[in-house]
Every structure is written in C-alpha cells, then in structure tokens.
Amino acid sequence: MWAKFKATYDRNHDTFRVEFLIVPAALLGLLLNHEFTVMEILWTFSIYLESVAIMPQLFMLSKTGEAETITAHYLFALGSYRALYLLNWIYRYYVEDFFDPIAIVAGIVQTVLYADFFYLYITRAKTQLLPLTAKSTLIEAVIVLSLSNSFH
C-alpha cells in the first residue's frame, strides 16, 4: 500500500516492525525452496510471508484490546479460509498423491496463529456473550466487544 487510510490509522498502537516478518521470509525463500530460480524464490517468499502477514493485525488487537465488528469477522473469515486450505491439501494428498511441504508447513503456521482467536470467537458466539471475567484474555475482550456490536 502506498498510503495509509488516515481515518482509521492509529500511530500510537502501530508499533509492529514488519521487517521482522519480511527479512526471515526472504531468507527462508532463498534457503528453502523447490528450485533456485527467481520465480520459485519469489513464490516461496510470498508463501512464507503470507503465513505470518496477519501478525501485525493480531498484535494490534492484543495491544489495544478492541476491534471493530468488521475486523473480527474479517479475521475469522481469513482463519476459515486457511483452515479450509488444510482440508484441500489432505484431499490432494489422498486423491492426487500431491504433497508440497513448503505450502503445508506455511499453512499450518498461519492456522496456528489464528487458533486462539478462532477458539475464542466461536465460544463467544456459542455462549451468546457471557460477561468477561478477571481471567479473560485481551483477545476474548476483542471478540466480546465485536460480537456484541454485531448483535445489537
């Protein structure tokens, strides 16, 4: 992106350093790939980077403890998309005898990053927004706030 959407950008909370994602993804793309060609390295880099690209958003959620309803639903949709990819790889392995360790490992990493958010999102929807307790995590607070806004 070339510009920030100033109406929603919060400089005080946007402290995640993306170079901590980009540099390791680039190094992994150079070191762990199927074939040492420019296109393969770029594809592998994009797979590794995609697996951790949600970390700035999750970092912001945990730091602020709040999210707009649309953001919580969007994160849930992204997590669902990646979880369904895991089912696709299982299907392709058994039906087509296809196995791509780079894509599978990156997909598992991405799905694990969503796991806590995913679990809390679903349990909050099932329990119809039980009140927060002192033991509630920041992500639980985000989910309760976003779901309560969507049901009212």
Automatic annotation (TrEMBL):
Instruction: Report the GO molecular function annotations.
Output: ER retention sequence binding
Q: What is its main location?
A: endoplasmic reticulum
Q: Which cellular components does GO assign to this protein?
A: endoplasmic reticulum membrane
Q: Name one Pfam family in it.
A: ER_lumen_recept
- What are the TM regions of this chain, as residue ranges? 20-36, 73-91, 103-122
BP terms from Gene Ontology? protein retention in ER lumen; protein transport; vesicle-mediated transport
Q: Which PROSITE patterns match?
A: ER_LUMEN_RECEPTOR_2 (PS00952)
InterPro entries, per the entry: ER_ret_rcpt (IPR000133)
Q: How does it sit in the membrane?
A: Multi-pass membrane protein
Localization, UniProt: Endoplasmic reticulum membrane
Keywords (A to Z) from UniProt: Endoplasmic reticulum, ER-Golgi transport, Membrane, Protein transport, Receptor, Transmembrane, Transmembrane helix, Transport
Q: Which PANTHER family match?
A: ER LUMEN PROTEIN RETAINING RECEPTOR
Family from the record: Belongs to the ERD2 family.
Name this polypeptide is given: ER lumen protein-retaining receptor
Which species does this protein come from? Plectus sambesii
